[in-house]
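Here comes a specimen:
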Amino acid sequence: MFSHDSIWGAIDALAERHQLSPSGLARRAGLDPTSFNKSKRQSVDGRERWPSTESIAKVLDATGSTITQFMDFLRPDGRDGHFPEGAFPPQAGSIPLLGFAQAGAGGFFDDGGFPAGQGWDVVDFPAAPGTKAGVYALEIQGDSMLPLYRDGDVLIVEPGAQIRRGDRVVVKTKEGEVMAKILVRQTVRSIELLSLNPEHANRAFDVSDVEWIARIIWASQ
């Protein structure tokens, strides 16, 4: 059953998942920045104020979310700031799988690098992901990551995980390029990456040119 608190809680959870405040979420959706402030959720006489369906539709469009994903946030266990349970097949031990070549296309990831949209396959995860919501797999295609990773190897990626120097990471640029590298250095302005294949040049990007970066936590070889 919908309630005033659950609807506003879902909006708060959606904002948190996209690393936004409620006012930041409203701003992204083209609404008055104060639209979702806690002070606006009740009138001066104590009556409950509900967000309009138009506001919710604008928020979903601005974040690339579906109504199903929003509904998942209405459940008590859906407010963890990660990809909502139920958006992919819920079999125990399975996670979303995407080919590396597809990963550069639009519509497969949200702003934080979490899986989104349609077109994902499913693969069994050899170690139970536990509470790591949003973990997914990328299948290597081609030889650009030799000798460390070969064609057909599967990388398990965890968006939102803490990243340190020397970690193996997947990076997606705002131009749609996706690559697996080793993090050499990361500052507030730039990211330096070491190529896995010595025949390929190392890379460096301005942070503003990077859409997301996620840590590789496991590889099937």
